[in-house]
């Protein structure tokens, strides 16, 4: 069924009896051409593009829980392409362009809203750094604009720009950035992939890999053995655990990141704003809740919940720039597992084992990457060569020293 305005009217007039399930619930087949492990945004997008753009058939996505239960449904929904480095910026701009046509492409309302993102500047040195980043964005075909304090005040009159501890001296804006309803992205890709014949198998945990003559030929799962021509791993925060089953130690650590939502308020935040002197960012959902977050909890964990010191830290950051928000009540908070890489940038590459491919290391920026990550991983799986925008995302950059260290933090995953 194709979704459209006419369809909504037709269903409304006939008691909404004609809606079909958005995707099937098939039993696993004994083997597939390609298996994708992980039914998050990246795994589902990979399966979708494999079928749609690369003509692949007999594809399955194996998800240990339910679609949308991982980070794709836990993030703070921000999309942008405001990166500095050559290895990153073309990839994230490719992703933003895919977001711009995505709803028409997969025929699903993902509430993509290009309401803009603004990075606040609090010092002259920071202004220099942001001008450099803005120029790198423009050179890569993205949009970027430096805003003055007056321009920012006109849009966000309640920001304390002058007598605050961190006065606001301007900002770097990307007007094409914004927010997307995160779980709708999982559902849209799942529905689109299912329509193209992909089997989405939920409640199917991969517990091991079967190898024959140095080649990966299938996976052991909680629902039995499934054979495959090629296997792509896209399990985000569980990457180290999954790859340890083939004795691969990844240049990666798993950390908790928390997100917060306030009670619903009338529209007050027109776009996304990030604090430049601490780690805090905020937007407002279409339901009215202030959606905000900050730093990692700072220790290795596979728990999907966080601790109170970071709640305090995030709220302090928020109060430093948005004192008025102190009157809003916190409604919900939760955590997700971050696959933090050693340089803060992702990996989309073959593994040393034939037939086994890897996608991970998204740190806390993987939601915006979902379309490009899926497209580039599908490109690699189908053609055995990296997509032109993802050539830098190789395992061997940690051997050759070609790090893509956007923040210049060095190999400290918790700081990226
Ligand atoms: C609080 C928070 C805020 C964030 N904010 C942003 C943001 O604003 N913008 C942004 O760009 N990014 C953000 N991120 C990061 C982003 O959400 C992730 O980088 C991205 O979603 C990871 O990719 P994914 O969607 O495929 O992951 P997931 O949805 O986690 O998918 C991985 C899936 O693999 C499954 N899995 C794991 N092990 C197995 C197994 N053995 N067998 C089968 N299945 C398995 C899991 O159940 C899971 O469903 C945020 C993350 C969090 C937690």
Automatic annotation (TrEMBL):
Q: Which cofactor does it need?
A: FMN; FAD
Question: Catalytic activity annotated for this protein?
Answer: sarcosine + O2 + H2O = formaldehyde + glycine + H2O2; sarcosine + (6S)-5,6,7,8-tetrahydrofolate + O2 = (6R)-5,10-methylene-5,6,7,8-tetrahydrofolate + glycine + H2O2
* Listed GO CC annotations: cytoplasm
Q: What is its EC number?
A: 1.5.3.24
Tell me what this protein is called.
Answer: Sarcosine oxidase subunit beta
PANTHER family given in the database record: FAD-DEPENDENT OXIDOREDUCTASE DOMAIN-CONTAINING PROTEIN 1, SARCOSINE DEHYDROGENASE-RELATED
Provide the alphabetized UniProt keywords.
Answer: Cytoplasm, FAD, Flavoprotein, FMN, Nucleotide-binding, Oxidoreductase
């Amino acid at each position: 069924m194709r979704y459209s305005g006419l369809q909504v009217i037709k269903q409304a007039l006939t008691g909404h009896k004609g809606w079909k399930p958005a995707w099937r619930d098939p039993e696993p087949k004994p083997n597939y051409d390609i298996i994708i492990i992980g039914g998050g945004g990246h795994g589902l997008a990979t399966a979708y593009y494999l079928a749609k753009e690369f003509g692949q058939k007999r594809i399955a996505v194996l998800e240990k829980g339910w679609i949308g239960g991982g980070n794709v449904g836990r993030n703070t929904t921000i999309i942008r392409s405001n990166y500095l480095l050559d290895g990153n910026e073309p990839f994230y701009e490719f992703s933003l362009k895919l977001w711009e046509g995505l709803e028409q492409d997969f025929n699903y309302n993902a509430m993509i809203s290009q309401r803009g993102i603004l990075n606040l500047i609090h010092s002259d040195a920071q202004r220099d750094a942001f001008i450099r980043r803005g120029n790198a964005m423009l050179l890569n075909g993205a949009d970027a604009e430096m805003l003055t304090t007056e321009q920012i005040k006109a849009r966000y009159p309640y920001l304390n720009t002058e007598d605050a501890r961190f006065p606001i001296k301007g900002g770097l804006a990307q007007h094409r950035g914004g927010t997307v309803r995160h779980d709708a992205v999982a559902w849209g890709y799942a529905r689109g992939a299912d329509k193209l014949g992909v089997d989405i198998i939920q409640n199917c945990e991969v517990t091991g890999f079967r190898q024959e003559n140095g080649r990966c030929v299938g996976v052991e799962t909680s629902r039995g053995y499934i054979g495959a021509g090629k296997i792509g791993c896209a399990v985000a925060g569980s990457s180290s655990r999954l790859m340890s089953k083939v004795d691969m130690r990844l240049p990666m650590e798993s950390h908790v990141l928390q997100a917060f939502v306030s009670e619903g308020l009338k529209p007050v935040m027109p776009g996304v704003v990030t604090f430049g002197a601490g780690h805090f960012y905020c937007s407002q959902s279409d339901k009215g809740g202030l959606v905000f977050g900050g730093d990692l909890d700072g220790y290795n964990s596979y728990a999907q919940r966080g601790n109170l010191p970071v709640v305090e830290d995030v709220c302090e950051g928020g109060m430093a720039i948005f004192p008025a928000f102190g009157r809003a009540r916190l409604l919900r908070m939760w955590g997700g597992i971050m696959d933090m890489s050693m340089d803060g940038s992702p990996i989309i590459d073959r593994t040393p084992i034939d037939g086994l491919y890897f996608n991970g290391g998204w740190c806390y920026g993987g939601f915006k990457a979902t379309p490009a990550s899926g497209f580039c991983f599908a490109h690699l799986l189908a053609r055995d060569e990296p997509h032109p925008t993802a050539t830098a995302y190789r395992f061997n950059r940690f051997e050759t020293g070609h790090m893509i260290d956007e923040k210049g933090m060095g190999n400290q995953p918790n700081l990226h």
